[in-house]
């Protein structure tokens, strides 16, 4: 027997559902729910990283990113933890988009494969024996037989996710909208509030909640080996509008301390965190805010949305454009590697890699990011009314010359 | 071997990949990450033995490396205070650069102090101490920085200073303790003066200490002390800090006094530059993005009357070799 053997799934370590290995550096990746964003960040979000989304002004596109992130977690069966100080964090998950393909649920996988196999065996056309064991082209049956979920689902922004799916998922919330309890209130609350007793800082309270969710939920890789679960799941942490005016901090450094502690916590855990941050609140007239830049340094990936409605420079010209704003990538995830993996894997040409700008578009059903380009001058409609001139310009060499000269003659010959 | 083209570009000379008895400051911005220089310095320091200045009888030729180790000539020692990344990060990258840090760590040539897991004041809420698994885990750090405990009353200037000073003094004792561990070589085994190696102390991202709210004067005093201890042992000190332009306008708690007030970030970075004898400045190209070139590296030697050399392609060439 040859020493070269095909790597089979049995040898490889078992990945959590909805995760894949990066082809660049072997990092475990999960999807953000938006394929173009995954691609720009080098295949997906690395497990153990913190992704910071700097929000757009006046519009709410950054929360679409967060909703996609949450919905992908629901689709992959990940556990979720959502936090907000502005609104009830349950609203984030209620407005998450639903996905079109059906995800495997335990009761269907129990009975259907056997039925399907018998019917398949009857009407199977024998082309060649060697193709018999390969998975069929139908995505759904292939998934149901192997029991794996796809890396990224197809979402529909028009249809919110069903309440039944939210009920089935394991979701925990940190609601910081209530004013902080004074010490006597916390004593009355009793059971699960006692770990936040006496914490007057929202950031500190959130970190205590997250540490609890990770370490008691079996997501920490530092837990004693006896306590570690046999099958790893992934915890997705979504934090809505960090450092907005509703966050009560004890000192100015609370946010930086929170982000540094979060990095230390997530590096040793099966978790991934997406944070939206209204950076424009900290922006002065002329320059980018220094405080936000400090927080950016403490995160692993930083992207920024700038909607045309909210920016002064582009508002006037944005009328004819079919995209909603610019998309910037300030920092690429660089965990355990010297160069970000996106430098080799990315297919959409981004602003870090070439001179192209990126733009995001929100259609009725989907949100995506692509290379920005200006529409043809004068708009598309004006181009279309003259098919003759366009055909004559595209015709080659001599004929176009004669055509144009003929037309010139005809215009003179009136 | 790190990046060979970068070694020649930096101009410390082939055997001296790090300036001995000097302080190197590396500055970068968010868009031009200079952490590759840290990996370059670590790999170079551990792979090439520096010539011992006090023992002229040992010729610095490549073939005599095992014999010099048996003679007890000082081997290099790198003490890394990782405030931005965990040990696994450094381990995997140095493996790609052709150096395995695990045996180096067993021989006490590479010492990693974890400043990520527990340094933040909020980390006291964690239940699992990362050191719990250190017996089974070969990649557990040598030491963890304990949680920095800021004073609850932040309005008082003096308490912030004293608490940071107390914390950093403790950290300094730990670092100096690691500097003085003897017996690096396997063959030497002794604890004589000659076997005590010359240490290279590296802080990956000193700005984290500032971000966590430590008092800038306390950090600067701490670094001054580090510099003294390192230079008295014939070693070198390397610092990484961020110098984004927008950061410089930030004055910490003292907005009315302007950016150059004591406590402002710009003053902090300028003090670091004053401390350093060599400055490597990584920045993105002023002309905008380019496909292959990530940025430019500015190399300044403070001792040599501001001799500035511009090396626009240093980073792109070394990244291509990776």
Q: Any idea of the CATH class of one domain in chain A?
A: Alpha Beta
How large is the share of residues in beta strands of chain A? 15-25%
Q: How many distinct helices of chain A?
A: 14
Give me the strand/helix succession of chain A. Answer: EEHEEHEHEHHEHEHHEHEHEEHEEHHH
SS element count, helices of chain B? 11
User: In the CATH classification, which architecture of one domain in chain A applies?
Assistant: 3-Layer(aba) Sandwich
Please mark out the parts of chain A with pLDDT under 50 across 5 or more consecutive residues, or reply none.
103-116, 137-147, 182-194, 389-414
Distance between the termini of chain A: 87 Å
Task: Characterize the largest beta sheet of chain A: strand count, sense, and whether it forms a barrel.
Answer: 9 strands, mixed
For the termini of chain B, the CA-CA separation is 11 Å
Approximate helicity band of chain A = 25-40%
Using a beta-carbon cutoff below 8 angstroms, give the protein chain pair with the largest interface and the number of residues from each chain. A-B, 53 and 56 residues
Overall pLDDT of chain B, averaged?
73
Percent range for β-strand residues of chain B: 15-25%
The assembly state of the depicted protein chains is heterodimer
Q: Helix- and strand-based class of chain B?
A: alpha/beta
Strand segment tally of chain A: 14
Query: Structural class per helix/strand content of chain A?
Result: alpha/beta
Low-confidence stretches of chain B: 52-73, 184-193, 250-260, 304-322
CATH superfamily grouping of one domain in chain A: P-loop containing nucleotide triphosphate hydrolases
Pathway (chain A): tRNA modification; 5-methoxycarbonylmethyl-2-thiouridine-tRNA biosynthesis
Keywords (chain A): Cytoplasm, Nucleus, tRNA processing
Family (chain A): Belongs to the ELP4 family.
InterPro entries (chain A): Elongator_complex_protein_4, P-loop_NTPase
